[in-house]
Design goal:
The chain is α+β, with helices and mostly antiparallel strands and 427 residues long. It is built from 14 helices and 12 strands. Strands 1, 2, 3, 4, 5, 8, 9, 10, 11 and 12 form a 10-stranded mixed sheet that branches.
């Protein structure tokens, strides 16, 4: 053991986030650090942590400027926590803040720290736009020059094309496909209908709107920059309205993914507090749930499998670790990157062929009760700031278990690069 002599339980005490906003909109004039600082400050305020030193704050962003190399630490310094609180930047695409929760949880379990925050943030409104590599190389060569002549000579190669900005690519480098294009392929492979996707999207909006109306999000979402709730949420949407939208990734009659059944580009930040049971008791903070199992997995999406299918593999591996069946959960929080991704995953678990040939199981993993799936809405309704989604889901599920009852909940998040991150929360 690195520190302790026995593994400790990892308590989730709760979380907070700023409202998620559609890209290029409400948060167009703020960046990652301002948003993440606000989410961390919300956790500090909610749990009375002002001036306290925590053992670790871990998190990150997918889209960030090179100047934000110490983003989480800089955000901690503005959060109200003691300046002696260490911080760590990490990144696993859309699974970033769930991976951060697992990392902090492991440190707590081993006795390295007693408390910590997992967090994530992303913005598409302040994307790190750079210039072409030839211009970069010219600048560096000029900077290396020892004489005036050596510094000026590279500028003779300057061309107008050097000033054409290069935005971050949303396509997978190995395939050249965007996530939406790859998911469209998955939908065709698994024969997921447009109607089924629109129905899932409709349920996400309906359930999120109902949860807001019931006050579920009151202590999870804090006002920020003029917003009080997620501005992607469409409380009055309908199946008929969703059905009118045109496909956006495959514009042929065979296309099924639309702007309505795919997550929008989103800005936002979220954070969640984890601790040992002793620390929680000393702080007089109630435990909402425990982080008990986790698993990350990857698939060969170039040759063998759909880009976003890794959770279909990770979950059964995690269930084997836990000695549980897919039906042994009160809530299922499956990140809605696209409605089709959720439906492909569920179809895979119900498929005898997939479970036998890909997972090595004697029988299908089984079906889940859809009434237990994303019961207070998910990414299709509230939005998806890439690195923030994991912390949002952990905080949401912990609160569901604490307030609505139930023994355990399952988290599943797909990510770019053909990866997936999953976890189990228990009471």
């Amino acid at each position: 053991m690195l520190v302790g002599t026995q593994v400790r339980r990892v308590a989730i005490l709760g979380g907070a986030r700023i409202p998620f906003a559609r890209g290029m909109g409400a948060y167009a004039d703020v960046g990652n650090q301002q948003m993440l600082t606000a989410a961390l400050a919300a956790v500090v305020g909610r749990f009375g942590l002002s001036g306290q030193r925590l053992g670790e704050v871990a998190g990150g962003a997918v889209m960030k400027h090179s100047s934000q190399w110490n983003l989480v630490r800089e955000s901690v310094l503005g959060s109200g926590l003691a300046a002696e609180t260490p911080a760590l930047d990490l990144q696993r695409a859309c699974g970033t803040s769930l991976e951060a929760a697992i990392l902090v949880g492991n440190k707590i379990a081993l006795g390295q720290v007693d408390s910590g925050i997992a967090c994530g943030v992303d913005t598409v409104s302040d994307a790190p736009i750079v210039y072409a590599r030839p211009y970069q190389q010219l600048l560096l060569e000029s900077a290396r020059g020892r004489t005036l002549g050596e510094r000026l000579k590279p500028w003779l190669r300057l061309r107008p094309s050097f000033f054409r900005p290069v935005a971050p690519s949303v396509n997978e480098p190995r395939t050249g496909l965007s996530m939406g294009q790859a998911c469209e392929q998955m939908a065709k492979t698994w024969q997921i209908s447009r109607a089924a996707q629109d129905q899932l999207a409709y349920e996400s909006h309906r359930r999120a709107a109902a949860a807001y109306a019931a006050g579920f999000y009151k202590d999870l979402v804090v006002d920020f920059h003029g917003l009080a709730q997620d501005n992607n949420l469409r409380a009055n949407t309908s199946i008929e309205q969703l059905a009118k939208l045109k496909p956006v990734f495959d514009r042929s009659p065979a296309g099924t993914l639309t702007a309505g059944n795919s997550t929008p580009l989103t800005d936002g930040a979220a954070a969640v507090l984890l601790a040992s049971q002793d620390w929680a008791r000393q702080q007089r903070l109630p435990v909402q749930a425990y982080l008990s199992y986790a698993k990350a997995h990857a698939v060969d999406f170039v040759k063998k499998e759909g880009l976003l299918m890794a959770p279909a593999y990770a979950v059964p591996m995690m269930l084997k670790d836990a000695g549980l069946a897919l039906a042994d959960f009160d809530y299922y929080e499956i990140h809605e990157a696209f409605a089709a991704q959720v439906l492909c995953t569920l179809a895979a678990w119900e498929s005898a062929d997939f479970c036998r040939d890909r997972l090595g199981l004697a029988a299908p993993l089984g079906a889940i009760d859809r009434a237990k799936l994303n019961v207070v809405g998910s990414s299709l309704a509230v939005g998806h700031p890439f690195a923030a989604t994991g912390a949002r889901i952990v905080a949401t599920l912990a609160k569901l278990l604490a307030e609505r009852g139930g023994r355990r909940g399952l988290i599943s998040i797909c990510t770019a690069g053909g990866m997936g991150v999953t976890a189990i929360l228990e009471r």
